[in-house]
Write a structure and sequence with these properties.
The protein is α+β, with helices and mostly antiparallel strands. Among the domains are: 236 residues, no CATH class; 87 residues, Calcium-transporting ATPase, cytoplasmic transduction domain A, CATH 2.70.150.10; 103 residues, Calcium-transporting ATPase, cytoplasmic domain N (3-Layer(aba) Sandwich). It has 20 helices and 22 strands. Helix 1 packs antiparallel against helix 2, helix 3 runs antiparallel to helix 8 and helix 8 runs antiparallel to helix 19. The longest helix has 36 residues. It is elongated and about 120 Å long.
Amino acid sequence: MQFTRSQKRRLFSILSGAGFFAFGCVFSLLDLHIAGAAAFVAAGVCAGFMCVIQAVRGIGSGDFFDENMLMTIAAVGAVLLGEYPECAAIMILYQVGELFQSIAVRRSRRAISELSNLCPDTAEALQADGTFTEISSAKLAPEDIIRIAPGGRIPADCIILSGCTAIDTSPVTGESVPRDAGPGDAVYSGCLNQSGMIQAKVLRPAQDSAAGRIMKLTETAGERKTRSEAFITRFAKVYTPAVTGLAAVIAFLIPLVIWLVAGTPYGSLFPEWSRRALSMLVISCPCALVISVPLGYFCGLGNASKNGVLIKGSAFIDTMAKVDTAVFDKTGTLTLGTLTVESISIAGAFAEKEILSLAAAAEQHSTHPIAKAICSAAGEDILKTVSVQELAGIGVEAVLADGRTVRVGRPRSDAGDTTAVQVWIDGASAGIILLADVINPAAKDALQQLKDGGIGQTAILTGDNARAAARVKEAVGADVVYAELMPEEKYEKIEALCESGKKLMYVGDGINDAPALARADIGVAIGVLGSDAAVETADAVLMDSDLTRLAYGIRLARKTIGVVRWNIVFALGTKLLVLALAALDLVGMWGAVLADVGVSILAVSNSMRLLRYGKKR
């Protein structure tokens, strides 16, 4: 395990304090009481010097009642009362608890900070003389040509110009299976080039790339506090001074009252009641609450980031845990936003494969999405052409090498939920190619997981026609669909659902989704590589189009809230119980120290379980 400099100092103070404590125990067994007392005091000094320094700094900054001051008062009081072993135990066990908390906080932060190191510091860029020179990644600009060696991390979003490779996208999307990439494919910053040397053209500066966006999101993830965190902060400011005042009353006022009423000498009462008061000071330390509650949220954020869900602050975890309605945009969210050939209707003595080849011959030089879908379906079976021309208002016509004429016509207006392309050969109809948007392969499973997780209603909002929307609704298993909506109408529908008392999550990917994302209780943008407006407006971002991450995010949010609430109830309940026992002299200083450290370790350990919470059900 790697320790920071501060953790190493704390570990040294614990070990040296424990060493002197062992000597003190040996001397006490040998009836060397003076040597034993000196060893116990030395143990307290070795273990507690960091605590005393931080207490002094707290006084300098106006914080008179932090946990370091409470522990310092308790340790000094134990010495004054002659309870030297208790003084050493207070400081040693307190430092053990602090070290454990420090390690836990560092681990939770590392889960998020690892995302902030996605971009390499340098890149090999093509220079005017034709050579590649290493430059700072921050200096990369659009249109720059870069070279990425096998094993190298991609410094900016770019498109491959030459070379084939396998791209490990897991650092950005969490997807464990590498994907093949070659000329024309887009690759994103932060991903790893696994196998081949590639040259690529930069699409956008490093700070605006996929990894740059992730870093911006993670830098602000801890800024928005939840109600629970704010409550604990306010509670600690009132609770600690109150308990300190109560301890002062027990140490000084109660002996005085007993002396005045019963006549028992004040000097004989003061040590006993002071010991009770010091025990109360030890157990009153609020570190278990102050650390474990924000740590719970931070572990939740870290786990979510590791599994491809960027939540922009712990405040949104609370809201996400309460979601009962999920509303989705259609195109680019429940569908992939890309056309594919769905079916072919044949006219005459033609085969489906032949019609595709004929249509692709005419469309092969076009960049229109319909043309790309047809050519992709045809594969390499594209006939050679002598000439190709566009016919305004009609379509594309091509003369094949064998003399036949192929014409591909405009989509029919009554195609409903599909796009239709008519194909003619020498003026005679050969068939109709029907194309449709591809359903997101994870959509159906994602919606079912949401319903299994207690989401009462799933809905689709889309600007597409009703037949296309109904087709997607049936395919993914949504409960209701609202079609043919303008962006402002999407917003109004979201507003109406929110005002009806539903806790609503809206999921979208485009610029037109930004108003709805902003109005929903939780707005989730699909793909950190997507629309700037959607990513900036949303409260959470999925790193890719895997919609099953939504159900995982909600389960994790609910788990996080459960852990935080358990920590609050357990820590407060235990402390109040031990405080009462200490006031009644049923628990001494040893019990108070063990209870305080034990509560802290258990609460922090409970929070740390969130880092191991799995994505799979």
